[in-house]
Amino acid sequence: MNKKRIIALGAAALLVILVVGNLVVTKRLSSETEKVNAEERFSLDSVQGDLEHMDENGSAVYFTSDISPDGLVEIYRALGWTPTGKVAVKLSTGEPPASNYLRPELIKELVQSLSGTIVECNTAYGGSRTETAMHRQVAEDHGFTDIADVDILDADGSMQIPVTGGSQLETNYVGSHFENYDSYLVLSHFKGHAMAGFGGAIKNISIGLGSKEGKCLIHTGGKSHTSPWGGDQTAFAESMAEAGKAVSDYLGNGDRITYISVLNNISIDCDCDGNPAEPDIHDIGILASNDPVAIDQAAIDLCFAAEGSESLKQRVERQNGLHTLEHGEEIGLGSRAYELINIQEETPSDTNTPAVTGEPSDTNVPVVTDKPSDTNAPAVTSEPPDANTPAITETPSETSSEGESVTEEQTAKSVMKKAKLKKLKAAGTKKRISISWKKVDQATGYQVQISKTGNFKKKGIFFDKKVKKTSAKAFNRQIKKKKTYYIRVRVYISYKNEKGENFRAYGSWAKKRVKTK
Predict the structure, then answer these.
(1) Cα distance between residue 81 and residue 98, in whole Å
(2) Residues 405, 407: Cα–Cα separation, whole Å
(3) Model pTM above 0.85
């Protein structure tokens, strides 16, 4: 072959590469444009009547149709979740060449604001991410190493964490680096999945955090440590929920993990598919919650209510995908009932109100009283709340009868001394306890705890939530028939101290016993 012919062939090959590259870039830019315009296409009001599991007493799930870096940061703030220690951001790095993984441009601002490390595990099915070196190259090619450190959690093998209350698994095998992180933000791209029916938060913390051995055990319902193939579908669905529960339990019973799911480029195929089917559903928005079952159920309901959802419905039904959510609720991973909160409709004073969180209260915070003589007044405690908690409406410019300025802290504590939670009611059946009370004026929210023991020691408390409503529901496998449980609720008000730091002042506990039917 002469030199001119070689040059001509080389030029032709280069032209093909440039054309294909331009098409890929054009497709990506078009996809990003779709994300920006999601709000114009999707109306939450038009589908709310079709959201089967929406319940004002369910777990809080936040929603925005703004699929952008700003939208992602805003919905994260709405959660009111504050990570501690070293932060891992779990996501899918995406299978080459054309999967719909979350783009680095979308997540960069949020990841860097947390000083987060992007974490992922190798695949068990082959492909370009089955070995650590290859996987790191994919992460680099897809732009993730440009925005944060990337850690392949099972680069050095597995570690075992216990599974409690499961019917398929006794142990969950995750990447050995899993224990190197204190808090986990789970960023999921919601879509269909050829084997699980759909992929969201639960898949991301079960299959997604599993080492190769862990993935094989989940796929086969605990039968094989070496092969992911040939397992029973029901056992697979239940194993995902059980592995997810093990991860949540390990991370402070869910306190040190939270979830954000992006509903865009919604194909029936997963990001582990390098050549997925074209999306049938228009971009919807972003969801955020501290409850992995609730966020997945909300994503399913929103997608099923959208136009073009027939293929996704068929795939989920064929793979018995909803059984993962059923089993997840049954074993106490979370609740399928959710309250959908549109943060774009919140008033400015409510935008940053803390979400329902699972953080345990500090029952040993010292009692604060204004006067020693008020020995019969309700106890008032103060502690720092989640970041961005709104202050009370009273301002420091108010004055006392003596003409001295009254700070927000003094006002908050004064209000809490007078506040009394009344008409506390409770009823329970197997796996569920419902609680309600009368609204307290000026309250920012309420803390609700349920315990197996009347002394409310930490080991006995299995439900600890902060809510804005005057009711709460606990869905938990630990709730048995004909058993007595102990409930206490206290009101809190948010304020800023003189340094501008966010705090909460708490009132005294109102208590109730309930025997389940």
Answers:
(1) 33
(2) 6
(3) no
